[in-house]
Amino acid sequence: MNRYHTAARRVFLGLLMSAGATAMASSLILPSPAQLAGHWELHQQDQVCPLDLIENASALGGDVECASRWLGDTPSSWSPTPDGIWLMNAEGTGISHLNRVKEGEYEVRTKSGETVVLRRAP
Predict the structure, then answer these.
(1) Any idea what the CATH number is for the domain that residue 40 is in?
(2) How far is it, in rounded angstroms, from Cα 37 to Cα 79?
(3) For the chain, where are the E strands, in sequence order?
(4) Does 116 share its domain with 72?
(5) Residue span of the signal peptide, if any (predicted)?
(6) Is the dihedral of CA 81, 83, 87, 91 positive or negative?
(7) What pLDDT score was predicted for residue 11?
Protein backbone atom coordinates (compact mmCIF):
# COMPACT_ATOMS: atom_id res chain seq x y z
CA MET A 1 0.00 0.00 0.00
CA ASN A 2 2.85 2.36 0.84
CA ARG A 3 4.37 1.83 -2.65
CA TYR A 4 1.03 2.70 -4.22
CA HIS A 5 0.86 6.01 -2.30
CA THR A 6 4.46 6.83 -3.21
CA ALA A 7 3.82 6.12 -6.90
CA ALA A 8 0.56 8.08 -6.86
CA ARG A 9 2.29 11.01 -5.15
CA ARG A 10 5.05 11.03 -7.79
CA VAL A 11 2.53 10.98 -10.62
CA PHE A 12 0.57 13.80 -9.00
CA LEU A 13 3.70 15.92 -8.43
CA GLY A 14 4.81 15.28 -12.02
CA LEU A 15 1.46 16.47 -13.36
CA LEU A 16 1.52 19.49 -11.08
CA MET A 17 5.03 20.48 -12.17
CA SER A 18 4.13 19.97 -15.82
CA ALA A 19 1.07 22.19 -15.47
CA GLY A 20 3.17 24.88 -13.78
CA ALA A 21 5.80 24.78 -16.52
CA THR A 22 3.11 25.03 -19.18
CA ALA A 23 1.51 28.00 -17.45
CA MET A 24 4.87 29.77 -17.14
CA ALA A 25 5.75 29.11 -20.77
CA SER A 26 2.39 30.38 -21.99
CA SER A 27 2.75 33.59 -19.99
CA LEU A 28 5.99 34.42 -21.82
CA ILE A 29 4.72 35.08 -25.31
CA LEU A 30 6.96 37.02 -27.69
CA PRO A 31 5.10 40.18 -28.72
CA SER A 32 5.40 41.27 -32.32
CA PRO A 33 7.13 44.56 -33.17
CA ALA A 34 3.73 45.83 -34.35
CA GLN A 35 2.28 45.27 -30.86
CA LEU A 36 5.00 47.36 -29.22
CA ALA A 37 5.55 50.01 -31.90
CA GLY A 38 4.38 53.51 -31.06
CA HIS A 39 4.98 56.43 -28.72
CA TRP A 40 6.60 55.71 -25.36
CA GLU A 41 8.10 57.73 -22.51
CA LEU A 42 11.27 56.84 -20.63
CA HIS A 43 11.03 58.06 -17.01
CA GLN A 44 13.68 58.54 -14.37
CA GLN A 45 12.18 60.11 -11.27
CA ASP A 46 10.46 63.29 -12.54
CA GLN A 47 12.34 63.50 -15.86
CA VAL A 48 10.86 62.18 -19.11
CA CYS A 49 12.41 61.32 -22.49
CA PRO A 50 9.93 60.72 -25.34
CA LEU A 51 10.84 57.66 -27.43
CA ASP A 52 9.28 56.10 -30.49
CA LEU A 53 9.54 52.37 -31.09
CA ILE A 54 9.38 52.21 -34.88
CA GLU A 55 8.13 48.94 -36.36
CA ASN A 56 10.11 49.09 -39.62
CA ALA A 57 13.66 47.87 -39.01
CA SER A 58 12.99 48.13 -35.25
CA ALA A 59 14.41 51.64 -35.30
CA LEU A 60 14.24 53.91 -32.28
CA GLY A 61 13.18 57.53 -32.60
CA GLY A 62 12.45 60.42 -30.30
CA ASP A 63 14.92 61.91 -27.84
CA VAL A 64 17.53 59.13 -27.87
CA GLU A 65 20.23 61.53 -26.61
CA CYS A 66 18.17 62.07 -23.45
CA ALA A 67 17.84 58.31 -23.02
CA SER A 68 21.59 57.83 -23.52
CA ARG A 69 22.33 59.92 -20.42
CA TRP A 70 20.54 57.32 -18.29
CA LEU A 71 21.42 54.16 -20.20
CA GLY A 72 25.12 54.87 -20.72
CA ASP A 73 24.99 54.50 -24.52
CA THR A 74 22.80 55.82 -27.31
CA PRO A 75 20.01 53.41 -28.20
CA SER A 76 19.30 53.19 -31.92
CA SER A 77 17.20 50.04 -32.26
CA TRP A 78 15.05 47.73 -30.19
CA SER A 79 13.86 44.15 -30.12
CA PRO A 80 10.98 42.50 -28.26
CA THR A 81 11.69 39.56 -25.96
CA PRO A 82 9.21 37.30 -24.17
CA ASP A 83 9.88 39.13 -20.89
CA GLY A 84 10.75 42.63 -22.06
CA ILE A 85 12.44 44.85 -24.63
CA TRP A 86 16.11 45.04 -25.60
CA LEU A 87 17.52 48.45 -26.53
CA MET A 88 20.61 48.23 -28.73
CA ASN A 89 23.29 50.69 -29.81
CA ALA A 90 24.30 51.43 -33.42
CA GLU A 91 26.52 48.33 -33.53
CA GLY A 92 23.59 46.11 -32.49
CA THR A 93 24.96 45.43 -29.02
CA GLY A 94 22.35 45.25 -26.28
CA ILE A 95 22.75 48.13 -23.85
CA SER A 96 19.64 47.66 -21.68
CA HIS A 97 17.02 44.98 -21.24
CA LEU A 98 13.83 46.52 -19.93
CA ASN A 99 11.85 43.95 -17.96
CA ARG A 100 8.08 43.81 -18.40
CA VAL A 101 6.32 44.95 -15.23
CA LYS A 102 2.80 45.00 -16.67
CA GLU A 103 1.05 45.79 -19.93
CA GLY A 104 2.60 48.98 -21.32
CA GLU A 105 5.28 49.30 -18.62
CA TYR A 106 8.89 48.11 -18.55
CA GLU A 107 11.79 48.93 -16.25
CA VAL A 108 15.54 48.56 -15.89
CA ARG A 109 18.04 49.37 -13.17
CA THR A 110 20.94 51.42 -14.54
CA LYS A 111 24.60 50.88 -13.66
CA SER A 112 24.30 53.76 -11.19
CA GLY A 113 21.44 51.95 -9.44
CA GLU A 114 18.63 54.21 -10.64
CA THR A 115 15.39 52.70 -11.93
CA VAL A 116 14.33 53.80 -15.40
CA VAL A 117 10.75 53.08 -16.48
CA LEU A 118 9.46 52.87 -20.06
CA ARG A 119 5.71 53.53 -20.34
CA ARG A 120 3.48 53.68 -23.36
CA ALA A 121 2.57 57.34 -23.92
CA PRO A 122 -1.06 58.25 -23.23
Answers:
(1) 2.40.128.10
(2) 10
(3) 38-44, 47-53, 60-62, 77-81, 84-88, 94-102, 105-109, 115-120
(4) yes
(5) 1-23
(6) negative
(7) 59
- Range in 10-14, 99-103, 112-116, 118-122 the model is least confident about: 10-14
Instruction: Please choose, from the candidates 110, 63, 59, the residue with its C-alpha nearest in 3D space to the C-alpha of residue 88.
Output: 59
From residue 14, alpha-carbon distances to 5, 10, 20 in Å are 14, 6, 10
> How many domains in the chain?
2
Same domain, 47 and 98: yes
Is pLDDT at 62 greater than 90 in this prediction?
yes
pTM of the predicted protein model: 0.76
The chain-wide mean pLDDT, for the chain, equals 87
What's the pLDDT at 22?
46
Same domain, 9 and 53: no
Please name which of 69, 33, 67 lies closest in space to residue 51, comparing C-alpha atoms: 67
Q: How are beta strands 38-44 and 77-81 bridged, if at all? A: unpaired
Provide the residue range defining the domain that includes 52.
33-120
